[in-house]
Design brief:
The structure holds two protein chains of two kinds. Helix content of chain A is about 50%, strand content about 10%. Chain B is of the alpha/beta class. In chain B, a hairpin with an 8-residue loop joins strand 2 and strand 3. The longest helix of chain B has 13 residues. Classes of the chains: A alpha/beta, B alpha/beta. Chain B: InterPro entries: SCP2_sterol-bd_dom, SCP2_sterol-bd_dom_sf. Chain B: This is SCP2 domain-containing protein.
Chain lengths: ~400, ~140
């Protein structure tokens, strides 16, 4: 027995106007100060007011939201008692808003204890709309929540199946002016979701097609979206949809080792999430493909993408090289050294990196799980660019 | 020789296996918390059996069948029908999926669990290594 979870997805031109159809009393808009400054928050508020809702706004979400921050946001919700929570932003905002929603329903809960096993009865307090303003995280359609424990310098992969949005509004107009660096970082996050969702041990018939399609869209449209920005609205729209499709895929099949290692790299070195998981991805492909023959699905994936896929090893090699090529096309670092991390920094932080990656909730869905020594080796490979395949 | 599950002999065999497992020791080095594993009736098992394990920093300090559930106040309870335990222990059912779908019910400090998921996985790996006779 397993589940496939999805919100109602409203997508395409003018999707934002769906907000005018919401029924309720009070909406809490959760966002960040950049989106307020850019006028996006005002557009959302206008639509919500048109629906007859009172609107309160919490715009203090920061990148890599902390445990303390979601507790502060939950206090805001408890004070204002909304029956709708509307998250407008990238993965940080949407993840933070989901955690606030849970703490709004369960104020007694420590954020670190958010888990997919207990019932929280979230919808007795409020329903949830997610509006992504980046094309990558997929958080608008997943129940995953990543929070940062700043004291322990650790990202926590949390989640609850209840914490999936009721409505995801995927409006490409909101990403037309996404800066190139953010386009690349988040687009590669979507690719990592698609590849890991297809190859994780939780993959299933319901998610395979989504992951394959999303991977193909990212390979095709990310370079154009990165290069031409708002001038290529078609590429922007396809990338925005690809991110949501990848989110549906990995959200119901889980991610794997590149996410476990990427979370550790992000928490220790503050590398943006999408860049961190993409840095790890080619090396984790090589690691998994070097395990028990036939234990990965790279051949099927590479074949679908039109890459050489004669056998598992060839497929893994062609896939990781395609990922590298894409990263280079969008001017991303392909090693930790290129990302500005020194050998000394890596050596000094290795113990923490390994400990966090080993216990990340996504690592255990990898088709091959490294021990501590192997994990260290992979981190050094990410540093140097040496692939063992 | 296969050992009947659930039984005192079985949980002691698992303790021995865990204490020899480098993978478990590595994965559970931060784990603090004892368990009641509650195996509910099914097949030829006509009563609930409770097995106790004291898990501490990668080692199992004590393990036995509990006759009086009031005897201890463990940090965690993991409960489910014997059929579900068998599916998990024979790799027909992923333990995390079993808990997420309510087929096994976990009670305890969830923050500790979410930070140590690999320890849980290695714990189940140990179960699968014990030659076992099931009552179903």
């Amino acid at each position: 027995m397993w589940y496939f979870s999805s919100p109602l997805i409203v997508y395409g031109e003018d999707a934002l106007s769906h907000l005018t159809t919401l029924e309720g009393h009070r909406a809490a808009l959760i966002t960040d100060d950049t989106l307020v400054r850019l006028g996006f928050a005002a557009r959302v508020i206008q639509n919500l007011q048109q629906a007859g809702l009172q609107v309160v706004c919490y715009d203090h979400v920061e990148p890599e939201p902390s445990l303390e921050q979601v507790q502060a946001g939950a206090r805001f919700l408890l004070e204002h008692q909304p029956d709708w929570i509307v998250a407008l932003g990238g993965g940080s905002v949407i993840d933070a808003a989901k955690a606030m929603w849970i703490l709004y329903a369960r104020p007694d809960l420590e954020p670190e204890a958010i888990n997919p096993i207990e019932r929280f009865n979230l919808r007795e307090r409020a329903r949830f709309v997610a509006i992504p303003t980046t094309s990558g995280t997929g958080s608008e359609v997943t129940w995953a929540i990543v929070l940062t424990n700043r004291a322990e310098r650790r990202k926590l992969g949390l989640g609850s199946r209840e914490a999936i949005a009721d409505i995801a509004i995927v409006d490409p107009a909101l990403v037309l002016d996404l800066p190139p660096r953010l386009t690349a970082d988040t687009g590669l996050d979507a690719l990592t979701h698609a590849i890991e969702g297809f190859t994780s041990t939780y993959h299933n018939d319901f998610t395979d097609g989504l992951c394959l399609k999303a991977a193909k869209l990212v390979f095709e449209y990310l370079p154009r979206a990165y290069r031409y920005g708002r001038e290529d609205a078609e590429a922007r729209a396809h990338m925005h949809f690809a991110a949501t499709i990848a989110g549906l895929g990995f959200g119901n099949a889980m991610a794997a080792l590149a996410h476990g290692m990427g979370h550790a790299l992000g928490a220790i070195f503050h590398i943006p999430h999408g860049r961190a998981v993409a840095l790890a991805l080619p090396y984790t492909i090589a690691y998994c493909a070097s395990g028990e023959p036939g234990s990965t699905r790279y051949a099927e994936l590479a074949a679908y993408l039109g890459l050489p896929a004669g056998n598992e090893q060839t497929a893994a090699q062609s896939l990781l090289r395609a990922v590298w090529d894409l990263m280079k096309q969008v001017d991303q670092p392909v090693t930790l050294a290129e990302a500005g991390i020194s050998r000394d920094d890596l050596a000094r932080e290795m113990e923490w990196l390994v400990a966090h990656a080993m216990n990340d909730t996504q690592t255990i869905m990898s088709p091959r799980i490294p021990d501590e020594s192997e994990m260290q080796t992979i981190f050094w490979q990410i540093y140097s660019g040496e692939i063992d395949l | 020789m296969s050992i009947p599950f659930p039984s005192d002999a079985w949980i002691k065999a698992m303790m021995e296996d865990l204490n020899q497992s480098q993978a478990y020791e590595e994965a559970a080095k931060n784990w603090e918390g004892d368990f009641y594993f509650v195996i509910e009736p099914g097949g030829s098992l006509d009563h609930t059996v409770i097995l106790y394990m004291d898990l501490w920093h990668g080692k199992c300090r004590e393990a036995y069948e509990v006759k009086d559930p009031e005897a201890r106040q463990p940090a965690f309870w993991l409960s489910g029908p014997v059929q579900t335990w068998k599916k998990v222990m024979t790799r027909q059912l992923d333990p995390i999926q079993a808990m997420m779908t309510g087929q096994l019910r976990l009670r305890g400090n969830m923050a500790m669990v979410m930070k140590n998921v690999r320890a849980a996985k290695e714990l189940v790996e140990s179960c699968t290594r014990i030659p076992t006779i099931f009552p179903v």
